[in-house]
Amino acid sequence: MNHREEVTCKILTEKVKKGVSWQQVADLIGKSKEWTTAGCLGQMTFTSEQAEKIGELFDLDENDVAWLQVVPYKGSLPESVPTDPLIYRFYELVNVYGTTIKSLIHEEFGDGIMSAIDFSMDIQRENNPAGDRVNIVLSGKFLPYKSY
C-alpha cells in the first residue's frame, strides 16, 4: 500500500467515526460531491486550501495533507473483474452496452472519445413509486481523433 492509499484509509476511518457525509465534505471545500468523493478516495488532486480543510475535518497530519495535493495514480479498481456487486454492475453495463454506447457516440459525433478529464458527473436519487432509482449523468467533452 502506498502512502496515498494510507491517507484514503484514514479519511474513510474518520468519515465513519464522525458520521460525515460526502456532501458535507464537498460543501466544506466548495466542489461537487462527486468530484470531492473521487478526491478523498485518491483519484483527484486537491489545492492547498482544499487539502487543509479536509485535513482539519479528518484530523490528518501535515504529511497526509501534502499527499492530498500530489497528482495521484489514476485507476482505483483492481486489474481483474471487480467483485463488489455495485461496481460489478458498472462493469456489466459497459460489457453489455459498451459497443452500443460506442456506436451511438460515433454515429452522432464521429471517430473519437468522450473525455474523462474534461468531465462532470451528477448522481441523484430519483423518487419512483415502484422503487427509487439511481440517476447518473456522465458528461464528457467529445475529443475527435485527428489525422496526421
From TrEMBL:
It catalyses: cyanate + hydrogencarbonate + 3 H(+) = NH4(+) + 2 CO2. Catalyzes the reaction of cyanate with bicarbonate to produce ammonia and carbon dioxide. Transmembrane segments: none annotated. Belongs to the cyanase family. It holds the Pfam family CYNS_N. NCBIfam families: cynS, PRK02866.1. Its EC number is 4.2.1.104. The active site is at 89, 92, 115. Keywords: Lyase. The keyword Methyltransferase does not apply. Gene3D superfamilies: Cyanate lyase, C-terminal domain, lambda repressor-like DNA-binding domains. Residues 76-148 form the Cyanate lyase C-terminal domain. This is Cyanate hydratase. The keyword Lyase applies. GO terms for molecular function: cyanate hydratase activity; DNA binding. InterPro entries: Cyanase, Cyanate_lyase_C, Cyanate_lyase_C_sf, CYNS_N, Lambda_DNA-bd_dom_sf. It comes from Aliiglaciecola lipolytica E3.
